[in-house]
Amino acid sequence: MPASIWATTITADHLEHFKDEDKYVATGNVRIEGEDSVLIADRAVLYQKTSDAEAIGNVIYEDNETFINTEKAELNIKTKTGKLYNALIFFKKGNYWINGNNVSKIKEDHYYADSATFTTCDADASSNPDWCFKGSNVDIVIGKKFTAQNVTYRVKGVPVLYSPYMWAPVKTERETGFLFPVIGSSSRKGFQFSPAFFWAIDENKDATFYLDYYSNRGIGKGVEYRYLDFYDRGRWYIYHLKDSELKKTFYEFKGTHEQELGDIKGYVDINYVNQEDFYKEYGYKKNLRIQRFLQSSGEVTLPLQNARFYLLGQQWIDLKEGHSAVPKRLPEIGYVINPVNIGPLMFTMNSSIANFYRQRDEKGQRMDINPTVSYSFGETVPIFQSLSLRETAYNLENAPSYKSSAHRETFQYKANALTRFIKRYESFTHVIEPSVSYTFIPETHSLPLFDSTELFDKTSIATFSIYNSLAFRHLTLSASLSQSLNFNAGDRPLSLTTINAAMSGPFSLNFDMTYDPNKGRAETVNSSVGFTIIDKTSISFGERYTNVDERYYYTFGVNSVISKKWSANANIVYDSQAGLRDSSASVIYTEQCWAVNISAIRRPGDNKRPAEYGFMLLIELKGVGQPIRLYQYQTHSTPSS
């Protein structure tokens, strides 16, 4: 029979109401429903005034966030607090499980137990999960933290690790807390321990604090700050390490910021290191280790009708030659007129005044005005023509080879003709696109080189190109050929011939080559092929050749999703002269609540550093902070490797 009190409904085989104690006693298939919760048990007592409930026998409690299975529960239906005995608790958001004998539900998301296990693996009370933490004085706040004493980390119920105390972040959303540390070893840097702390300042700002301890090198400290708003966004990072072995102090600073003030938009992108070899010593990514220049820039733009003003600053750090080798653009003021139609003509203009500074070689100021008028006609064979005038004037310093007030007046004429032939057959479409172009710039006198503006000089080149493609239903074949004639090259007018070919479909094929007809040899040859050998397993091969040093580079890659749980990938680069280069291989095993990534890497050395080998075992316990890098080992070959 059912009974209702406020927003609570009780249904049971037998229901009694005791007025003196103002309580309901229900037995047999008891079901107590609140506004957003339900309690099921063999027997239950509900006190009307306090909303306290005692449930015994096959107790199940469920609300929007939680599912609880317990032998006995003492709960307040309204506050959702109380005590649970021999309980299995499941949190729907984050897939968290708690199993404990005597659990106190302090708040809706806060639990305390004298002894309990904690995991994110799906399991019932009678089986052992794939992994769990078991400890005493267990305190869990969902979305924030897990703390316990005398903790054992267990795999299928077998203890494998012990800690007298444990703290771990339990994240359902971004929250302040420690991230799992990186632990590793290197023959050059020694033992590594790298903890990190994440600070969720508010909903649109956060920061991460980094610490890197290297037993052979010293301690590195870093801070990263991120923010996002309606009109601005950015991230800033600073890092410092005093290397006791190299006797160097390293600084790294980088950051980006974007800002909008009405129609005015601006950005800043800063990258700085005080030592040119910082990334070679501490850069984990290949693109950081091999980069030649670090660029920093900032720009403010004011849009106008069909035009814009801008203020630009740029500087580069040459990681090979030093900080002062490349001129800094500090600042440049520019005015740009976007393409606008004037009768049958189209007009555009770029103009700027820039200050170039460097500690050695030429520096000074430059004014550049470059208006362009273009005209196009034709339908079957469209022809595009443009005429650009260019006035460039300088105020030079530190330039004994040039006049201090050097200037240049010149022009550029360009013409381009392109047509397309298309023929559709029953099974494929054939496209041919021939084109021809011509560029002319008269000869001018020599100028100091600041950027590509100074390369605007003596040119008379005609280029002939043809593109050919066959498009089938599941296959596309394409090829192109391009040849230029340089009329200023004397008796050797033929420039490099460029050939490209590609195929896409069941497998991919790419090929490109530059050929020098004057010397009768290939200057560069690049090719790659990729295909799927079985379902979800792909292989790629590549070859690069350059005639400058007569060197071949060979690449090999494989990526395989073996099953829902297993995947693997490998990448190898081989240099015909230097041997094995950047190479890596990894195997990943994924379960519902955890994953393991085993990786091996090789980083090439140079004349100062030996090749580096590394091994990493990364275990991710899903739902508990960041992946745990339990062990990482790195060693180095001899300098001759």
From TrEMBL:
This is Organic solvent tolerance protein. The keyword Coiled coil does not apply. GO terms for biological process: Gram-negative-bacterium-type cell outer membrane assembly; lipopolysaccharide transport. HAMAP family: LPS_assembly_LptD. InterPro entries: LipoPS_assembly_LptD, LptD, LptD_C, OstA-like_N. Gene3D superfamilies: Lipopolysaccharide (LPS) transport protein A like domain. GO terms for cellular component: cell outer membrane; transporter complex. Residues 9-67 form the Organic solvent tolerance-like N-terminal domain. Residues 253-557 form the LptD C-terminal domain. Keywords: Cell outer membrane, Membrane, Signal. It comes from Dissulfurispira thermophila. It comes from the Bacteria.
